[in-house]
Design goal:
Layout (H helix, E strand, L loop, with lengths): L2 H21 L9 H14 L12 H6 L11 H18 L1 H8 L5 H13 L1 H7 L5 H15 L6 H15 L3 H15 L6 H27 L6 H5 L20 H8 L1 H23 L4 H12 L7 H22 L12 H22 L4 H23 L7 H17 L2 E5 L7 H6 L25 E4 L6 H10 L2 E7 L26 E6 L10 E6 L1 H7 L2
Parallel strand pairs: 1-2, 1-3
Antiparallel strand pairs: 3-5, 4-5
Helix pairs in contact: 1-4, 1-6, 1-7, 4-8, 5-6, 5-8, 6-17, 6-18, 8-9, 8-10, 9-10, 9-11, 10-16, 13-14, 14-16, 15-17
Length: 545
Amino acid sequence: MQKKQIVFCLILIACISLGFKLYTVDFSVSPTEDTYGYVLRAIAHNNGDFSESPRKTLGWSIVISPFLHLVDSNNFIDYVNVARYLGIAISTVSIYPMYLLARKFFDDKYSLCASSFFAFEPHLNHLSSGGYSEPIYILVIILTLFFILNKNLNYSYLSFFSVAVLWYMRWSGIVIFAALTVIFFLNNKKNSKLFLKYLLCVGIFLVLVSPMLLHRYEQFGDPMYFSQSSTVFIGNPIALLADNTQNIEYSASDYIDENGITKFLYTFVMLGIYNILASMVKMSFPFLIVFLPFGILFSLRAFDQNKNYLRSNWIIIIITLASLVYYFGVYPEKRLLFQIFPFLIILCTIPLQRVVTYGLSTFSFSEKQKNLFLIGVICTIILLSTLFTLRYESPDPVLDYEKTKFAEMLVEKFDGKILDTGDTLQGLRNVKLSNPPGVFKNVMVGEDINFLHESGQKLVAISIYATTMDDFIKTSKDLDLKYISFHQNGLGDFEPWYPYLVDIYENENKYNFLKKVFDTNEAGYTKFHAKVFEIDYKKFYELNG
């Protein structure tokens, strides 16, 4: 193909992909907790505060921060939308690096097919519009593999530079450093100065990440501190986020001592593998699931791809997934799997190439007919992507209004700490951020993202880890928890977090120590159904000895 044709095709693919991305986002809807945190930290950076979160790195918020100067508004959503637009732009731009990476494995035609897989993958498009860190993480990880696969060994310096940037974006970037090291030595075994070049690569990496490590040491006393590494082995998802577990040191050996090696292997190995596989099956719809099994099979006996390159692709996939197994045993966060999608797409393109190059030749198809077949495949992918994208639920303006109304009522009438057991307090942050208007512009985050608690806000949402009702009440009392909020649909995804609270919404009369202080049904809400209870600790202990 001529260069002009390739450029035209990539621009066309990018434009269609951009349409999908814009369709999946409602710029008036409140952000998720993660996006909320990224944007607030970005604002804090502009105010001179670079405090780190115990659970997140600074990379994405630093990228966002200069773009916030383009906005002057008292509405926090306008600042959130900067992150959303930026994510969409980065994801769209990433189509070209995806093409360049694919060129290491395929010719122009199939590289365009690979970039089409990437551009029209509905989960990636939906993800790109959320204001998350994933789009830039995926872009940098694509560049990292592209650089390390370059025949000029000097490009390895760029790969270790980019993996340092990757670590700033997500704490899991250190895993890619490990994969990169393996790839570096396997692909360059014949170079006599290999070890010296590797030391230089490591030096570049360390120079770039040292500010982050020093900053983390100053703030937490440990350059490698990451709060969830100390709580994941508790073995409960709420423990990763709860207010009462942030200072707990609990290791794998602690879990084994209490539960035995068999339970450990089941939870952190077998269950982790199962959750990853189950998530991958769901995330492979609508079209990757067709190509991926054959891609895995054909990659084992690939003869059209550079074997070193294909092996490198597999190293990234395997090491990344292996690093996630233990975490997925506790908290199967699907978003963490999107980082391997570019490499899965490389595998998915192999069977397409194999069928066109060899299968269709058996039936004496001409080159023109083969090209028409590829165009047909891409059109089918676009159609499937369209149908799948249309399945995403459009925001309900009435429901969104009632959630905001509910949050406004809570802020106005209640004073104290409140526990959200599932999908009731989504609008709380935005309400607090708008009262008074523009309060968020002066945010200094510090270690705690819930800065509003220290800014005089009366109502504060917290989370609690407990294993039984007795333990929950004791912990709640210690933390001064006053209210619990419940949703009509039950705990939903929160059910394994609070199994002892599942029954309360439907059977409130069974729980005499809970006093109902608000019910949206009684207040005339039509779509949002929630109840708020105040805890009477004295009555609980009277009733339970």
